Amino acid sequence: MSAPDALRIEHGTRTGQPIIISLDSTGPGPALGGCRVKPYPSWRDGLDDALRLSAAMTDKAALAGLPYGGGKTVVALCPGTAAHYAGARRSDLLADIGEAIDALGGRYITGPDVGTTPDDMAVIARHTPHVLCRPQHAGGSGDSSFPTAAGTLACIDAVRDCVFDGRPASELTFAIQGLGHVGVLIADALARQGATLVVADTDPARQKLASRWHARTADPARLLTSDADILVPAALGGILTPATVPALRCRAIVGPANNQLSDDSVADLLHARGITWAPDPVVSAGGIVAAVAREITHLPEPEVRNLLAAIGSRLGTLLGKAAKNGQTPLGVARQQVRTRLTSTPGTLPGDPRTVQPGITR
Q1: CB 183 within 8 A of CB 176
Q2: Which of 312, 314, 332, 350 is spaced 20 to 30 Å from 281 by Cα?
Q3: What percent of the chain has pLDDT over 70?
């Protein structure tokens, strides 16, 4: 992983909590990336996450054809302290985050991520205008789950065309890992199409949702090895590893979970087994595509829907090129990102590649 354009680590003036902002790339435009607030074993683990996630956002924006770079905010809470940041204390933390973002002068735009919500974005927006996905009543585009699910479903259609000769969902079995907001929306849509579903979630209450889809439940630890046509990772990343790939029983993997591969070598292992992997930076782009279209370029809703459908077309083109050239989908995606980044006209005026107070490299 290359060094980011800029890395800001500072203690909030109200809470003293370390706030990490990684700007992986700003050449194409301001960096886009969500704000993650969760416990980590140490702040250095949060730093590693910020660097990894901001690099993934660079790929996501580039592969979606957006004129933006990639960034991420991570607030690495000490284990057991998450409950401390509720009520007024949470407002203090969000104010600290907003001020840290605002100090970057528009080079970074944030949004919700693990541990934050559209309502949190409304609080952050009191301290900086550089925020997306506030609730609709507060002037934002709202929950990104719906466009993320729409983009994922468009990619599932592309995979059905490329790998399964256009067979309808009703003739296929899908194994869905993770029944959060996005996973549930995907399961609802596939169930309406008559698909057979196998689902799993670490939360027993969410597992009970299986009855509404007449789905079979699986032990979360064994969902990956379910006998299914398409695996849909919709939880946290890092699930595809040299240890898990040999046990997979699916023909394709397409889901919105970020950073699904433990490392790039896993793409080769999947290719060797004949399993088509849809690169997650392409699949999961619906949230940022819709937020930018609605809040920055102010496109009408029919055009937003067209952009979300185009995510599937982008994936279909990528998979077709990979199959034609005997490459992995990841290899083609990497080439597309390099082309996108090298074709941009350099960095923006005031770009943070120049080290400034409060910013370390």
Answers
A1: yes
A2: 350
A3: 94
Q: Which tokens go with 141?
A: 């585009």
How many Å apart are CA 53 and CA 90, to the nearest integer?
A: 23
3-state secondary structure of 8: strand
Alpha-helical (H) ranges within 21-102 are 43-63, 88-102
Residue 142 in contact with residue 135, Cβ under 8 Å? yes
Query: Please, what sign has the CA dihedral across residues 9, 260, 296, 63?
Result: positive
Say how many Å lie between the first and final Cα of the chain, rounded: 14
3-state helix, strand, coil in the chain (%, to 5): 45, 15, 40
CB atoms within 10 A of CB 41: 10
pLDDT tens for 22-37 read 999 999 999 999 999 9
How far apart CA 267 and CA 277 sit, in angstroms, is 8
Residue in the block written with tokens 């937020």: 291
Pairing of strands 108-109, 31-32: parallel
Contact residues for 300 (Cβ-Cβ < 8 A; gap 6+): none
Tokens of 138: 């507060």
Active site residues: 72
Cα atoms in the 13 Å half-sphere on the side-chain side of 43: 11
Residue 212 burial by Cβ neighbours in a 10 Å radius (0-12, 13-18, 19+): exposed
Strands 31-32 and 252-253: unpaired
Helix (H) or strand (E) holding 69: strand 69-77
Number of H helices, E strands in the chain: 11, 13
Query: What would the two tokens of residue 86 be?
Result: 């509720």
One-character DSSP codes across 210-247: GGGGTPEE--TTTGGGS--SEEEE-S-S--B-TTTGGG
Sort residue 279 into left (φ over 0), alpha (ψ -120 to 50) or beta: beta
